[in-house]
Design goal:
Residues 172-327 form the Histidine kinase domain. The chain has two domains: 20-158, no CATH class; 233-327, 2-Layer Sandwich (Heat Shock Protein 90), CATH 3.30.565.10. Helix content is 69%, strand content 9%. The protein is built from eight helices and five strands. Strands 2-4-5 form a three-stranded mixed sheet, covered by helices on one side. Helix 4 (114-194) packs antiparallel against helix 5.
């Protein structure tokens, strides 16, 4: 028998030091480091510098350095996708190295003092970095706008295809299923009137009732399809719509007490889907009430921009787990 006595060391995932989120802070940090370098340069060569030299260095070196600090912050506040941060950083680095390379030749051909060459080099790096950042930022914004425009076009085409499909389904339900259901119900009603056999009449009555229920379901589905595809959207008198639905429920459910607090008239934007929504809300509030005397109260609160409709009942309510799937 052998025993494994070797030590096992778990190594966690290696976190890269460079991530897309760190790019803006690298740019700002580079600008901040340049400011520190400028301060050190001023201290180191303070005895050799005149006031004009100090002011010129603060403007030509400190200005671009602060520009880089602000540029990194600007990048975090922009709507540019984080996946393009690295591209902006490459432009910034390329501008700094490129402009420094351009200025190295005159620095070598026309030697200056050590203080002057260091200031010149730092100016080249900072100015080139700011210019590169500006180019990268503008380019990234342009790419972002193009991508968003393309995505919007694709989404519009998808919505158009979805509307076409919903229209087809609506027409199919209306011409094929709904008409057939109404024909079946009509024939069952005619046959029930012609025959006196109670068993046959009961079966025909069942067929007629099921046909009516199927017609109601189809109408609900069509209303839902119309609501989803935005068909016939316009101004709807919400008060009149609710009053009609309440009157229908009072006629269907004698044992239910329905109360309403409605304004004289409230105009909202909507379509046939509103009627379907409130019809189902009221029916569910009554049919799923396990009390002896179901009570339902409807209130409407109109605000300048919105209208809130509250349907409350004395039933058991909807379980929390079911609410997430319903709403």
């Amino acid at each position: 028998m052998s025993h494994d006595t070797s030590d096992r060391v778990r190594v966690g995932p290696v976190v890269p030091w460079f991530t897309q989120n760190s790019v803006p802070w690298i740019i700002s940090g580079f600008g901040g480091l340049s400011v520190v370098f400028l301060v050190g340069w001023l201290i180191a060569f303070a005895g050799l510098l005149e006031i004009a030299d100090i002011l010129l260095s603060c403007i030509t070196v400190g200005g671009p350095a602060l520009g880089l600090v602000w540029g990194g912050y600007l990048l975090t506040r922009s709507d540019i996708d984080k996946n393009r941060y690295a591209r902006v950083c490459k432009w910034c680095l390329g501008g700094a190295v490129g402009f420094l390379g351009i200025n190295l030749l005159p620095m070598l051909v026309v030697p200056w003092t050590l203080a002057g060459n260091l200031s010149w080099a730092q100016f080249s790096v900072n100015a080139g970095g700011v210019a590169g950042f500006a180019v990268g930022y503008v380019e990234a914004r342009a790419i972002q706008r193009e991508v968003e425009a393309t995505a919007a076009t694709v989404r519009a085409e998808q919505l158009e295809d979805e509307r076409a499909l919903l229209t087809y389904l609506n027409d199919l339900l209306r011409h094929e299923v709904l008409n057939s259901s109404q024909i079946i119900g009509g024939h069952a009603s005619l046959l029930r009137e012609q025959y006196e056999d109670e068993r046959l009449r009961d079966r025909l009555e069942t067929i007629e009732g099921e046909s009516d229920d199927l017609v109601g379901v189809i109408e609900d589905v069509r209303a839902m399809l119309d609501a989803n595809r935005g068909a016939g959207t316009g101004t709807v008198d919400l008060t009149a719509l609710l009053e009609a639905q309440l009157a229908e429920c009072r006629a269907r459910f004698d044992d239910a007490a329905l109360e309403a607090t409605l304004p004289d008239a409230v105009a909202v934007r909507g379509n046939q889907g509103l009627q379907w929504i409130f019809s189902n809300l009221l029916e569910n509030a009554i049919e799923h009430n396990d009390g002896d005397a179901p009570r339902v109260r409807v209130t409407v609160d109109a605000a300048p921009e919105t209208v809130t409709v509250t349907v409350a009942d004395n039933g058991p309510g909807i379980p929390e787990a079911t609410r997430e799937s319903l709403f």
